[in-house]
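## retry 2 of 3
previous attempt timed out at serialization; input unchanged, resubmitting
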Amino acid sequence: MPPPNPPNNNPYAKAASAYGDNARKHAPDQRELEARVLLKAAHMLGDLQDNWENLHGEALEKTLKYNRQIWMMFYDTALENPEGNRPNDLRSNIINLANFVFKREVEIMTDPQKQKLDVLININKEIAAGLMTKPAE
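## retry succeeded, writing output
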C-alpha cells in the first residue's frame, strides 16, 4: 500500500488552501458589506423616483421593505449589544435614525410622494460613506 500524500503534495489540499487564502483576501469586512447594502437600497429608492410615473404599489412596498430590513438589523444590533464596541451615543443615534426611517416609510406608504424618498436616499448614502471610511485606531 503506498504511503498517503503529505499534506503539501495533495493537489486538493493545495486548491482548498489557495481558495481559502483568496476568499480571505477578497471578502468584504462587515462595515464594507453594510455600506454596500445601504447603497443598494439607496439605488433602489432612486430607481423608484426615476420611474415614479409608472410606479406600481408593489414595487414601492418591496423596496421600502428591503430598506426597512436593513435598518431593522441596525436597530436590533444597537439594542442587543449594549456593551459592544460602540459608544452609547452612537448606539442611541443608530436607534433614533432607525426610528426616523421607520416613521418616514409609514408616511410614504400612507401618502406616496417621490420627494419623500430623498431623505431615505441621503441617509443611506451618508451612512454608507461613513462605513466605508476606515475608523481611527
